[in-house]
Amino acid sequence: MEPPAEPRARRLFGGSARTLGDLAASPFRADRDRIVASPFFTRLGGVTQVVSPGGSGLLVHNRLTHSLKVAQVARAIAERLTADDTHRKLLEKLGGCDPDVVEAAALAHDLGHPPFGHLGERVLDRLARQRLGLTDGFEGNAQSYRIVTSTEIRGAATTGLDLTAAVRAAMLKYPWTRLDHPDPHPRLLDPAPRGAAVPPDDPDSGSAKFGAYRTELDDLRQAREPFVGRILDWQQTVEASVMDTADDVAYAIHDVEDFYRVGVLQQGTVAAELMAWQRESGHLRAVTDAALATAARRPGSAIERLRRHLHRKDGWIADDEAFAAAVEHVRQELVEGLLALPFDGSIESEQYVARFSARWTTRFVDAITVVEQPHLRSGHVLLACPQWHEVQVLKFVHHRFVLARPDLALHQRGQARLLGTLVEALLDWLLDPEEESRLPRRLHDLVELAEAELHPRTPDRIGRARGRAIVDFVAQLTDGQAVAMLDALSGRSGALWTDAFVL
């Protein structure tokens, strides 16, 4: 499918210095190749998805394998939609849906995720705002956008990955800044779009999720300019919506798959939760929120809280019949299916996992549709109601039986402390006048880049540039590099020359 002529021409050339020969060979495929060839993409193999790649003793998803699978699902969705006559005209009206654009955006969407996954994201955001004085703080999606637009240094210039405007627009799951773009800001809408709401425990912080820092705002505007008049200022492009949906699908399936492999998901505990709710749903619905919270460990209570949460947050699609059907379907597929046979590493068990993953992926891809006027909390591309509820239940299983575990909390608290100590150590190094000539070259370059981005009259310009450089530097480390660098800075490493790889 071809997007409308004028927007397509502008999307091909926008923000990308390419020759006519490059354009003839599909600039969007060239974008995909640039992303995959980037060291930032290779780095994702050493970055946590949920559990550190070396911490489980088994092969689990990391950010690289997750990104590859998101790209696979996203392309399947785009190809299905563009082959469907019922969707083609609407897709054209909204700005087009090119499978190459979708795939490239999916491959790039996690480039900015720091060491230790979402935990690292929260820790760096807190440190950036409270310790380093950065109003924008840190956000993984905004960091990904920063990487492809500015922090990939080539020679004397900082050119990013030189991606087309279409792919950059498709990366923007949250096409707004933290506080002030667009105007009015989407966090002020009622309800706020997904990700735009302000955290209740930090009301002055701005949106919880956002797609670009203020330093990349001009680039964001330029990337989305072809879509003006087609979608609202705060809405995802269709291609971004496909990528976002694919990310949700991959997350729901593959995290369950991972923790079945590791042995964390046990049939008995998952069955007890789901089946208790099925038996007692009538009684549980009559229990007050306060009483339900006090009975948090009672089987069935947690999933009843999920049902209520969905009604509060997403009443536009939440449906009790669909929720009950989703619980039953997940019970059949997961409790009586996948978890009935403990994973033992055999070829048979690997095939069992592969069939489970393929069956769910096909089910979700086939349930994708396009709507012209989505709800505020939805994109133009979305799952049908039954499958939307199934994704929520699968994600619940992961949150309830993995993320809430005390042993994982113990592991993550250590990682949080490590990142905090590393940021402080790098700040001390930057502030030491006798060590300026011996700073890591990458850190030195990032300070210069951040300083050049700031207006000359910016208050504490040098301090803010140093803070952003530290955040950029730490966010570009793998889990292992973060550990090794802190060991070296703490004097715990005896391997002098091999420590240089993190510099």
Automatic annotation (TrEMBL):
GO BP, sorted A to Z: dGTP catabolic process
Gene Ontology molecular function, alphabetical: dGTPase activity
InterPro entries assigned: dGTPase, dGTPase-like, HD/PDEase_dom, HD_domain, PHydrolase_assoc_dom
Keywords: Hydrolase
Domain of life from the UniProt record: Bacteria
Domain HD: 63-252
Region annotation Disordered: where it falls in the sequence: 182-209
SMART domains (UniProt xref): HDc (SM00471)
NCBIfam families the record matches: dGTP_triPase
Protein name: dGTPase
Annotated organism of origin: Micromonospora nigra
